[in-house]
Amino acid sequence: FGGTPPPSAMDPQLEAKAGQKCEAVQQMIRRIERALSNNAEEDKQWLRNIINPNDACLSTLVKILIEPKYKGFVGLRCVVLRAIQLILRIAVLMVNGPHALDNNVGLWCLVHLVGDELTCKVLPVVAHVAECDQCEPLAACNALMMLAELGPEALAANLAPRLVDLFVRLPDRADELVEVALRFHAHGGDQRLELLDAAISRPGGSLLCEVLLQVVNRADVKRRLRALKVLTGCLSRPGSERLLYTNDVRVLVEILLRELPNHADKEQAFICYADCLKALASRCEEARKHRRSDVLQVLHDLQEDEHGTPIIQDQCAALYAAMTAAK
Questions:
Q1: How does pLDDT run across 91-148, given as a tens digit for each residue?
Q2: 132: buried, middle or exposed (CB in 10 Å: 19+, 13-18, 0-12)?
Q3: How far apart are CA 89 and CA 187, in angstroms?
C-alpha cells in the first residue's frame, strides 16, 4: 500500500472516470436511504434485489475498492465504503435462520454475496484504510463502519485506538463513530478491553464519553444500556478520574437519579444503572456531592421498598453505604 499520488500525477481521463463513478455511487446511496425511509413495498423489493447474489451491484463496488488505479481517489473510496456498509446492513436485517444469531453474520453476508475471492481481497484493503494514520479520516471512519457491519472477526481489537482518535478528527461524525464503539464493547474480549484502554489513554476518550452520555439519555433501551455499560467500564478503570467533564458528571448523576427508580422492577437494567453510579461515585468527587441528599433518599426509599427484589435492595444498601462513607 503505497502513498497516494499527487493530483498532478493522475491521468485526467482516469480522474474523470473516477468522478463519474463517485457520482453514480452517491446516487445509489441516496436511493438506498430513500428506500429505507419510505419502506414501501416497491422500495423493499428494490432493496431485496440489490442483496441478491445474482445482482452485480455489491461485487462492482468491491472491485472498485480493490482496484489499484482508484486508490488515490479518496472521495470515491469514501462513498464506496459507505454504500457497501449500507448494503451489508440491509443484508444482515434480512437474514433468517441460524446465521442470524452469528456475531459475524455481516461477514457471512459479504462472502455469500460476492464470494470468497473478492472477500479475501477487500478485507485487508478496508482494514488498511481504517488503521493507517496517513489515510483520510473520513475514509477511515467509513472503513470502520463497514468493518463494524461485518462483525468481530473483521473489526479487529487493534482498531480501537484509531476509532477513539477519530472523535477528535471528526466531531461531526461522532454519532456514527459511537455506534462502532458500541459494537466494539458488545463483542467483548480483546475488542472491549482495547476500547476501554483507548478511551482512558487517548484525548478522544472524553469526547467518546460525552457522546455516550447523550445515548444514555435519549436512545432506545438496548443502546442506552450498552452505552451505560461502556461508561461504567471506562469509569471502573484506573486513571478515569478526569475522563468526564464536570458538567457531564452532573448530567450523568441526574440521569441515574431519574432512571434508578424507573427500573426498580427490571432487575438487570437496574443493576446496570447501579453499577454506573457506583463507578462514577468512586472516581469523581463531584458525583458524590451533586444532588447528594436526593441520591441518598432515592437509595433509601428503594432499599425499603417492600416490592423490591432482594438483589435490588442489596444493591441500594451497598450504594448507600458507599455514598455515605465517601468524603
A1: 999 998 888 889 999 999 999 999 999 999 999 999 999 998 677 899 999 999 999 9
A2: middle
A3: 17
- Check: CB of residue 214 under 8 Å from CB of residue 179: no
Which residue bears the cell 476509532? 163
Q: Which residues of 35-61 are buried (b: 16+ CB within 10 A; e: fewer)?
A: beeeeeeebeeebeebbeeeeebbebb
Reduced to 3 states, what is the DSSP secondary structure of residue 38?
A: helix
Query: CA distances (Å), 91 to each of 41, 58, 88, 280, 304, in order?
Result: 17, 11, 5, 39, 49
Q: Give pLDDT tens digits for 265-293.
A: 999 999 999 999 999 998 999 999 999 99
- C-alpha distance from residue 49 to each of 35, 44, 83 (Å): 12, 9, 15
Q: What does the DSSP 8-state code read for residue 307?
A: T
Give me the numbers of helices (H) and strands (E) for the chain, helices first please. Answer: 17, 0
Total-model pTM: 0.90
Rounded to whole angstroms, the Cα distance separating 16 from 326 reads: 66
Cα–Cα distance between 140 and 217 in angstroms, integer?
A: 28
Say if CB 244 and CB 281 are below 8 A apart: no
